[in-house]
Amino acid sequence: MSRGIKERKARQAANRDKRPYAIARYIRIPNSKVKFVLDLIRGKKYEDAVDLLKNLNKSASPVILKVLNSAAANAENNMAMPKDNLFVAECYATNAPQMKRMMPRARGRADRILKRSCHITIRLDELKVGQKVNKPAEKATTQKAAAVKPTTTTKTATVKATATKTATAKTATKTSAKAVPATKAEKPVADKPNAVKPLGTKAVATEKKAATVKKTATATPKKTTAAKKEAK
């Protein structure tokens, strides 16, 4: 069972993160409120982060300031790193045990209250020569000559022309197929909003009779009074 324990310990010591850090445990502030402040100081210099936390009106800012100062003191005393050359390399907050309390409500019921807490960790690191803080690394862009391809070819042009011809032919056939209404009964009522649509074949028969009466009246002109007297 004890085989390889020394080798494993040596491997863990070699891979251990040796940057200065500080941890504050069981802080009675929710995790979400602490993360908002940690996002503001991440990647900034130690002096700038201290100034920001002193002037920030948040409940988590004094606690995070204590953790930051503790990490800077560890770097200065244990690793001989000057505070002027430090920056916030990592900072995060994890969930801690939460206390459960009850609130009395109506009709003898009770609601649960969760009093959350968190662990705050801050790691510092020393700035290297020419290193930029709190700025993303610039990516080198290579210029590539993009060959411009023709958008339309002769084949596509002919296909489009045939498609337009077929579309016009279809529309022409549709318009020619529509018959023009001959009688009033077949005409739509929408043209005359006040008109009433006739019903059945009786209305058509009455229209035909009226048309014949009009034709006869126009064919046989009325006799004048002079013509009547001459006929007598």
Describe the structure using short key phrases.
232 residues, alpha+beta, Ribosomal Protein L22, Chain A, three-stranded antiparallel sheet, two-stranded antiparallel ribbon, 5 strands, 44% helix, elongated
3D structure, described in words:
This protein starts with a helix and ends with a helix. It has helices spanning 5-15, 31-41, 46-55, 61-78, 154-177, 200-219, 225-231; strands at 21-27, 86-95, 99-104, 110-115, 118-126. Among the domains are: 16-126, Ribosomal Protein L22, Chain A (Alpha-Beta Complex); 181-215, no CATH class. Helix 3 (46-55) runs antiparallel to helix 4 (61-78). The chain has a three-stranded antiparallel β-sheet, with helices on one face. It is 44% helix and 16% strand. It is elongated. The protein has 232 residues and is an alpha+beta fold. The longest helix has 24 residues, at 154-177. The chain is built from seven helices and five strands, in the order αβαααββββααα.
